[in-house]
Amino acid sequence: MLIDGDVRVWESLAILEYLAEKFPNAGLWPAEAAARAFARAVSNEMHAGFVPLRRHMPMNMWRPVIKRELTPEVSANVQRIELMWSECRKRYGSKSGGPFLFGGFGAADAMYAPVVARLHTYSVDVAATTKAYMDAVMALPAWREWHAAALKETWVLAEDEVDWPTVLRV
Description:
Elements (H helix, E strand, L loop, with lengths): L1 E3 L2 E3 L2 H11 L10 H16 L2 H6 L15 H25 L10 H15 L6 H11 L2 H12 L11 H6 L1
Antiparallel strand pairs: 1-2
Helix pairs in contact: 2-4, 2-5
């Protein structure tokens, strides 16, 4: 949740839009209309999609890096993500010279940070360009802060890690 004085914003895309309006010079969305539309489209696709990936690879920054075999549905999600990231980089990111989807780090990269975490945590085999993008995201100071904060969480269990009989007895 974002709390800014009396303003409360609890949904990720709404938070990004609020911040983009409040800090227009931050460049959260690309300046060019076509790039901005593309960035919003891929961000919305992340927000609403990739259910097989989310279910098969729960977000858990506590977990050590492990190799997990992918189901066909998850493989299709990963292929779609890699295709999108590659398209973003080719059409927009490489023009500005930055290592992120649209050049400099922006809203679309923030939306895909949890996917980067999942692909890393579950040691998913990806293309070299995808790995380079993931490395750029994980090299950010904000990533290190996020990871450190996640490790301080006191109740973080993935669905497949919960011992429900024990939890329900408590």
